[in-house]
Task: inverse folding
C-alpha cells in the first residue's frame, strides 16, 4: 500500500466534443482554456487566472469528464486525486500527498489539478461526528495553503468536484480559492439523445433503433446512466446472439438500469 500512487497524472485525451449538452458550463470554461493556452498573453494584460473552480452537479453528470476536457482543450497535463482517498489515512499522509501533487503541477505549469469528491475532505470543520478529524483537517489546510501560495506566474487551475456544495467549509469558497462555480445538470431530452449517440458510436445498430425515442423514455438519467444503458443494450444483443443491437435490447437495458437505480434508492433510504 505504501507504494500506491500518490496521485495520477494523465496526458490530455478528452475534449468538449466528448461531452454532450452542458453548453453553459463549456462556455464558462472556454475562458480558462484560453488562458491556459496563452498564459503570457493574459499576464501581459494584467489578467489573473481564476485559481479554483468548483464543479457542482449530481453523480454521473460528467464533472470528472468536464475537468479532463478542460485539460484536453488546453493541451495541458492533468493531475488528479480523490477526496475519498484521504479517509482513514495516517495523519500527515494526506497533506504530504497534496504537497507533492501541487509541486508536480507547478513544475509542469500550465496544468490542471483535479480534486474529486471535495466534500469528503472539505466538510465544514467541526461538523464531523465525534470531532477530531485531524487527518482530514490537515489535508484541507494543506490544500488551502497551497492555493494561497500560488504566485501570479504559476498557471495552475485547481478544479474540484462535489455533489454536496452545501456541506463545504466556507473557507474553501473565499476569494482566491474555489470562488467560481460551474454547474452541471442532469441532461434534458436532446442532450440525452446526443449522449446516447456518443456512447453507441462504435456499436452496430439495427435500423429499428430510435435513439430519440430512447432519450424520451429516460427522463432523469445521468450521462453515466445512459452510457451504462448503451453498454447493457449491447450485452443483451450479445446474449441474444444478434450481430446488431436492436431497439428491444435498448428497451431491456432501460428496464435493467431503472431497476438498478430503484434498488439503490431502497437501500439508501
Ligand atoms: P461522480 O459524481 O459519480 O464522480 P461525475 O459527475 O464525475 O460523477 P463522470 O465520472 O465524469 O461523472 O461521468 C461518468 C461517465 O458518464 C463519463 O465518463 C462519460 O462517459 C459519461 N457521461 C456523463 N455525462 C456525459 C455527457 N454529458 N456526455 C457524454 N458522456 C457523459
Result:
Amino acid at each position: 500500500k505504501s507504494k500506491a500512487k500518490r496521485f495520477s497524472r494523465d496526458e490530455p485525451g478528452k475534449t468538449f466534443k466528448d461531452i454532450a449538452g452542458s453548453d453553459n458550463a463549456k462556455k464558462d470554461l472556454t475562458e480558462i482554456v484560453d488562458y491556459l493556452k496563452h498564459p503570457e498573453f493574459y499576464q501581459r494584460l494584467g489578467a489573473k487566472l481564476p485559481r479554483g473552480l468548483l464543479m457542482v452537479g449530481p453523480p454521473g453528470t460528467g464533472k470528472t469528464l468536464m475537468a479532463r476536457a478542460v485539460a484536453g482543450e488546453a493541451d495541458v497535463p492533468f493531475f488528479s486525486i480523490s477526496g475519498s482517498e484521504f479517509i482513514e489515512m495516517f495523519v500527515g499522509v494526506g497533506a504530504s500527498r497534496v504537497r507533492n501533487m501541487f509541486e508536480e503541477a507547478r513544475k509542469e505549469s500550465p496544468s490542471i489539478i483535479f480534486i474529486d469528491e471535495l466534500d469528503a475532505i472539505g466538510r465544514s470543520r467541526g461538523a464531523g461526528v465525534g470531532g477530531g478529524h485531524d487527518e482530514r483537517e490537515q489535508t484541507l489546510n494543506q490544500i488551502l495553503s497551497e492555493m494561497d501560495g500560488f504566485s501570479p506566474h504559476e498557471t495552475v487551475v485547481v478544479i474540484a468536484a462535489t455533489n454536496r456544495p452545501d456541506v463545504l467549509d466556507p473557507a474553501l469558497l473565499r476569494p482566491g480559492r474555489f470562488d467560481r462555480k460551474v454547474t452541471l445538470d442532469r441532461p434534458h431530452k436532446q442532450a440525452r439523445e446526443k449522449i446516447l449517440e456518443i456512447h453507441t458510436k462504435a456499436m452496430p445498430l439495427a435500423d429499428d433503433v430510435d435513439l430519440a425515442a430512447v432519450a424520451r423514455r429516460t427522463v432523469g438519467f445521468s450521462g453515466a446512466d445512459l452510457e451504462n444503458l448503451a453498454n447493457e443494450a449491447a450485452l443483451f444483443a450479445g446474449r441474444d446472439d444478434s450481430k446488431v443491437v436492436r431497439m428491444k435490447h435498448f428497451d431491456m437495458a432501460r428496464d435493467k438500469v431503472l431497476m438498478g437505480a430503484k434498488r439503490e434508492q431502497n437501500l439508501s433510504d
Notes: Confidence is low (pLDDT under 50) at residues 1-5.
